[in-house]
Design a protein that fits this description.
The protein contains no helices and 22 strands. It is mostly beta strands and 241 residues long. Strand 18 and strand 19 form a beta hairpin.
């Protein structure tokens, strides 16, 4: 098993006043030649947006975009006619494909919103843009890997144009579980939302991350009550990306 550890304190950081964003991979003004992407995982931004503020209308193309609220209310709008507010427990996906314009705003005027914005290289270009949204709170089971994203339109969770599976997990202290990689050629990227994990000889605290590859499975142990995101993703990046 091979691993790469990304400490929370080594992430890029941008402070725009209304927006405070930590970048796990090179993004905007943060450039790190050793942190461009992990396989098809291109962007993992940990965003904090002040009340009444947000990202106005802007375009994307040929990227799978996943938004996961952590705290507060995030308002979405796009040129496909979709609009609404997502909160913790919701997962929003958008296949930008041949082009889409959208906005993401804090739906509250005072309280901040905190959310993860994740970009994944797709496995095909110029698809018809699409929007999807699910809520996983009714399905989540403590001490299990709860699938929230997959490549299967009929599967559990939201679906994207990539052979990727995302899981949210809430582990009680002392819980040990083995995760099996879903597809040959995939690796896993684990991002700790809160708490303390051990994977092999590596310990991870809040907002630490670990990339794992060249293994069929690995064990995750919670050293305290812990919530984390696990992204099972192809390591080979498409030539067109």
């Amino acid at each position: 098993m091979k691993t790469v550890f990304h400490s929370a304190k080594t992430r890029g950081f941008a402070d725009h006043g209304w927006l405070k964003s930590h970048h796990s991979f090179s993004f905007a003004g943060y450039s790190n030649p050793n942190r461009i992407h992990f396989g098809t995982l291109r962007v993992l931004n940990d965003d904090y947006v002040e009340g009444g503020m947000g990202f106005g209308k802007h375009p994307h193309h040929n990227m799978e975009i996943i938004s996961i609220p952590i705290e507060g209310d995030l308002k979405h709008g796009d040129d496909m006619g979709n609009s609404g507010v997502i909160r913790k427990g919701d997962v929003q996906v958008m296949s930008a494909g041949r082009g889409v314009v959208h906005s993401e705003m804090n739906a509250n005027t005072v309280e901040p919103v905190k959310f993860l914005q994740i970009w994944v290289f797709p496995n095909k270009q110029n698809v018809t843009p699409r929007y999807g949204q699910i809520n996983y709170l009714d399905d989540i089971v403590k001490n299990e890997f709860q699938q929230i994203v997959s490549p299967d339109p009929e599967g559990k969770g939201a679906w994207i144009h990539q052979e990727a599976w995302f899981s949210i997990a809430e582990f009680d202290a002392g819980t040990k579980k083995t995760y099996t990689i879903r597809k040959e050629g995939n690796g896993a990227y684990i991002f700790v939302l809160k708490g303390h994990l051990r994977i092999g000889d590596q310990e991870l605290g809040q907002r630490d991350a670990l990339g794992i590859w060249d293994t069929e499975s690995f064990e995750v142990e919670a050293m305290e009550d812990t919530e984390f995101l696990l992204m099972d993703i192809p390591l080979e990046v498409p030539e067109f990306a």
